[in-house]
Known about the structure:
Blueprint: H1 7-10, H2 14-22, H3 33-45, E1 49-52, E2 58-62, E3 74-79, E4 102-104, E5 107-109, H4 118-132, E6 141-146, H5 154-157, E7 168-171, E8 179-195, E9 198-199, E10 205-212, H6 230-241, E11 245-252, E12 263-269, H7 273-290, E13 299-304, E14 311-312, H8 314-326, E15 330-335, E16 340-352, E17 356-365, H9 368-384, E18 388-395, H10 405-418, E19 423-430, H11 433-439, E20 444-447, E21 452-453, E22 461-463, H12 464-480
Parallel strand pairs: 3-6, 3-7, 7-20, 8-19
Antiparallel strand pairs: 1-2, 2-6, 4-5, 5-22, 8-17, 8-18, 9-14, 10-12, 10-13, 11-12, 15-16, 16-17, 21-22
Amino acid sequence: MKKYKSINDLREVQVFNNFLKLTEIPRPSFKEKKVSNYLKNWAEKLNLNVKQDDKFNLLILKDGQNGGENKEALILQAHLDMVCQKKDGFDFDFDNDPIPVQIDGDELNTGGKTTLGADNGIGVAVIMSILEDKEMSHPPITAIFTTVEEDDFSGVNNLSKDWIIGNRAINIDNSKDDEIIAGSNGGAGVTFSLKINRQNRKFKNIFKIKVSGFLGGHSGEDIEKGRGNAIITLSRLLEKLEHSIEILDINGGTFRLAIPRECYAIISTDLDKNEIDNILGDFEKELHYEYNSFSDTICVKSEESNSEQEAIKSEDFNKIINIIKLYPNGIFEVDPKNHVVISSNNLGEIKIEDDCVKFINEIRAMERSQVEYTYNKISTIAGIYDGNVEIYAEYPGWRFNPNSKLRNIYKEIFEKELNKKLEIKVSPAGLEAGYLINKNPSLDIISVGPNHTGLHSPSESANIPSVINFYETFKVFLREID
């Protein structure tokens, strides 16, 4: 396959040309108006039937062509928004700046600066390329582009049932070209809030201490990969320092759907910088031993601070540390048959707002009862420490369908064309399929896509050969499907 050495060269490939246009349009969750309007105008110029609702979801219809006119309609679906994560210290505005793309061998990425938006921009670009291609053969296409998938699923949740035109659908939101997703977890966001009191007392020195360099990643797909949690790690350090410090502030993580990569605290202490740095250095060595597979990126450091905040009362400091120690985080249950995580939780953020500490997390589980059980655990901890708990952004799981005709057809065609076996899996992440099935219980749906890695982190990367091969094979699939 041709090697692409520049972004301009890559624009010669139809699917990448469309994706690179998307990287120039800001599209955080809840702020998809620009990209939705862009696609609406784009579809109208192609003389396609297009509808936009008040959530900025889009429905675009294209007739079957070149032998596919009388075939059964096929729904193609992807979401418009992206997770916005950036490297600590990198100056970037996701509301206004284009994504800083680069080519690194066979990979398209940002050089570790920001998320790329391949999740789910590649899926959107694949569907765009199909809609604008007049040469390929395909059945009638119902293209559905949704919003806010990366937060509360309010786009697909509010989607009109009338837009589900057809009884078979492909969600192009998977990140591995050798698998077919045939089920996924449901879940919910949870915020645990704890009121704190402050006292007009500080020790002599004020420092910002920070744990950084954890790999982060997708709170569903990567929860089982042993990447650590910077919030929990910092709490361990604070506990070591407990009798020598007071906390003025604590902040870690940026999004409940991303495993936290950094966490910091502002502390006051009578210890000098050398004493603090010696303790932090010993702790860093412990972490390097524990996380030896990526120890070269982990850093624990201090810097002097001029914060004027008052210290959190010691009893509330103790509450914060104890809550983090008790907080349910990580994997709870794995399906022994499919070896997939079916119950987990990610403590994704901690921050102080208006003298209230907020612990923000994402529960994921196949069954609603499992989500409720983890929520009840958090509620129990809140009851012990006089906190409040709010649950929101709930979304349904997607149960495996053993009789999927669409899955069998896709598997047969792709295995033949790519000359490799495709695995059928249930995803630990949450996908929109559960909502679509709720709106049309007879819907036969799968989730597929080309290779992209580092989802929900600045290391996100799309594999160029995989994207091209996937798209070319997908065209064969559209031609041959009944």
